[in-house]
From TrEMBL:
Pfam families: ActD, Cytochrome_CBB3
Alphabetical list of PANTHER family matching this protein: LIPOPROTEIN-RELATED, QUINOL:CYTOCHROME C OXIDOREDUCTASE MEMBRANE PROTEIN
GO molecular function: electron transfer activity; heme binding; metal ion binding
Superkingdom field: Bacteria
Boundaries of every Cytochrome c domain copy: 284-368
Species whose genome carries this gene: Stygiobacter electus
Transmembrane helix keyword on record: yes
Keyword Metal-binding among record annotations: yes
Lineage, uppermost ranks: Bacteria, Pseudomonadati, Ignavibacteriota, Ignavibacteria, Ignavibacteriales
Name of this protein: DUF3341 domain-containing protein
InterPro entries: ActD (IPR021776), Cyt_c-like_dom (IPR009056), Cyt_c-like_dom_sf (IPR036909)
Keyword terms: Heme, Iron, Membrane, Metal-binding, Transmembrane, Transmembrane helix
Parts of the chain that traverse the membrane: 56-77, 97-123, 195-214
Length: 379
């Protein structure tokens, strides 16, 4: 194939005003497939060429919003539907915690979509050749000339007419531009094995060099005075104490300030007899009790105390809290169970303060009354 295929007709102008005027009259004549090339952006060119705003923004908007929606749905599905876990009594679907992720995913998807759309749809990647590449025209317009090219596939394309139009518009050079035959018949050069291997080699060399320089050659320990100080780590042996244990227990008989030790260890019935609930029933204490019950007790005892555990058999189901036994227990007796645990149920004395334990008991009483409502309660 030696026949040349015409790509378009190009004209070069000396002055920016000339090319602006030319672009304007070409647009007015109804040409659609033409382009202007200038060494720097010209004010008013968009208007002269009657260019519409780029559609790329819509792609960014739609993909960005879809990314945000996908992030919200994913987190909602994972946290509220598929694997709900109570974190510190917060709701499963807790939007404030999702904002950073939603923001990041929105920005990430919008920017990736923008770049990929630009590359693959607007620039027709992997094609990286263009008939203007290497032409004298392109050299001139990247130096000090202003060019216009009308493409051969424009509906109104006609060589003679365009030539006379360009002359009329004060063009200094007018020349046809042809497709490069070799370029047309060649597969995408970007996939040539030599080039691909070269790219991979550059990537490996670069990352290796960066790794070496930053992690070996120039490595500086950040805050080394903290990293290298003497200290006793958890579970580590100590040379100071004769028993060799690094983790020490408080001296026997230690009593924390403002705290009386529990006096009924191993004797829940006595606790039931002697202890009196000091927390009055109020809206606030019931709310606190409900919060703590839902967080610490409901995984096993269920939100209503029925004993239908959410642990799906991974821990023995507890008995109902609505049995006559528990309903007839005094508050102090239940306090003993929460404080010391009972058989397989562990103690909750480290998770709940004493006041919180009493508030939980008040709330259990509410559940019990609700489940065994009397005629008079309904009035
Ligand atoms: C890890 C699961 C689990 C959690 C969490 C749990 N319990 Fe229990 N609870 C049990 C089991 C199992 C039993 C039955 C123990 C036994 O065999 O005596 C039980 C027994 C009880 C009993 C005695 C019931 C009876 O009939 O003897 C009370 C009262 C009780 N729990 C209250 C609570 C409260 C209040 C909380 C929250 C602070 C709580 N439990 C948290 C598993 C749990």
């Amino acid at each position: 194939m030696n026949e040349k295929i015409l790509y378009g007709y190009s004209a070069l102008f000396d002055k920016p005003n000339d090319v602006l005027k030319a672009a304007k009259s070409i647009a007015e004549k109804g040409f659609e497939k033409y382009d202007v090339n200038t060494p720097y952006p010209l004010h008013g060119m968009n208007k002269a060429m009657k260019l519409k705003p780029s559609k790329l923004g819509y792609v960014s908007l739609i993909v960005g919003l879809s990314g945000a929606l996908a992030a919200i749905l994913t987190m909602w599905w994972m946290n509220a539907v598929d694997y709900p876990i109570v974190y510190g009594g917060k709701p499963y679907f807790s939007f404030p915690a999702y904002i950073p992720v939603v923001f990041e995913v929105t920005v990430l998807s919008a920017s990736i979509a923008t770049v990929l759309t630009m590359l693959f749809i607007f620039f027709k990647f992997p094609n990286n050749s263009h008939p203007l590449q290497g032409t004298d025209y392109l050299k001139q317009v990247s130096s000090d000339k202003y060019g216009i090219i009308i493409l051969a596939d424009d509906k109104k394309f006609n060589e003679e007419e365009i030539e006379s139009l360009f002359k009329e518009l004060n063009a200094v050079t007018i020349s046809p531009i042809y497709w490069d035959n070799e370029e047309i018949n060649h597969k995408h050069k970007i996939f040539e094995p030599k080039f691909v291997i070269f790219l991979i080699a550059v990537a490996i060399l670069n990352s290796g060099a960066v790794y070496f320089v930053y992690n070996k050659l120039l490595y500086m320990q950040p805050f080394n005075w903290m990293m290298n100080q003497q200290r006793q780590n958890v579970q580590q042996k100590s040379l100071i104490y004769s028993d060799g244990f690094g983790m020490r227990k408080p001296v026997e008989g230690t009593i924390a300030r403002g705290h009386l030790p529990y006096q009924f260890v191993g004797n829940p019935d006595l606790a039931g007899e002697k202890l009196i609930n000091p927390i009055p029933v109020s809206k606030a204490s019931l709310k606190l009790g409900q919060e703590k019950f839902d967080t610490y007790c409901s995984p096993c005892h269920d939100y209503h105390g029925t004993g239908q555990s959410r642990l799906r058999g991974q821990f023995p189901n507890p008995p109902s809290l609505h049995s006559d036994k528990v309903r007839n227990w005094s508050d102090g007796r239940i306090f003993a169970v929460i404080t010391e645990g009972q058989n397989v149920m562990p103690s909750y004395s480290t998770q709940l303060t004493e006041d919180e334990r009493w508030a939980v008991i008040n709330y259990i009483r509410v559940l019990q009354r609700a489940m065994n409502a009397k005629e008079s309660d309904l009035k």
